[in-house]
Design brief:
The chain contains seven helices and two strands. With 147 residues, the protein is mainly alpha-helical. Helix 3 packs antiparallel against helix 7.
Length: 147
């Protein structure tokens, strides 16, 4: 008699491991937190990504120490940004009272200079980090038994 037996145990083990990852989103998302933090740092370094921030007006340039970039007169805003996992999300926040004015702008007074932004490439890197975490479930390749 010829018989084929297909074992689904390894596949079920893999699904259980993936389910455990989704039930603990902090473990799944934590490796992506430095990616988000690094993207925000690059926004300051490059003075806006993917769209450059508007140039500073002459009055601001006169008050600002020479050589400093936009939104970096004291460095407080940049240093105030915290990036962390909250529930099933990665959150970047700041408690600087003037942060929203720079992020969203104030009509006729302050132009938008969004610093809490991810580029499509940043988002792809976050997605890849999550995929890598899911892929690293500790499973072994399913093997087919022949008997």
């Amino acid at each position: 008699m010829l018989r084929l037996r297909i074992e689904f145990g390894p596949a079920f083990d893999l699904m259980a491991a993936i389910q455990r990852r989704f039930s603990a989103p902090g473990e799944l998302l934590s490796p992506a937190v430095p990616i988000v933090a690094g993207a925000i740092e690059r926004n300051f370094d490059e003075e806006g990504r993917p769209i450059p921030w508007p140039p500073l007006i002459p009055a601001t340039l006169r008050r600002k120490p020479a050589g400093l970039k936009s939104l970096q007169r004291t460095g407080r805003l940049r240093r105030s940004i915290a990036t962390r996992v909250e529930g099933s999300a990665i959150v970047a926040s700041t408690d600087a009272p003037y942060a929203a004015a720079h992020q969203f702008g104030i009509a006729g007074r302050i132009p938008r200079r969004p610093f809490l932004v991810l580029t499509p490439e940043d988002s792809e890197a976050v997605a890849q980090s999550i995929a890598n975490t899911l892929d690293n479930t500790g499973h072994q390749s399913a093997n087919t038994g022949h008997r």
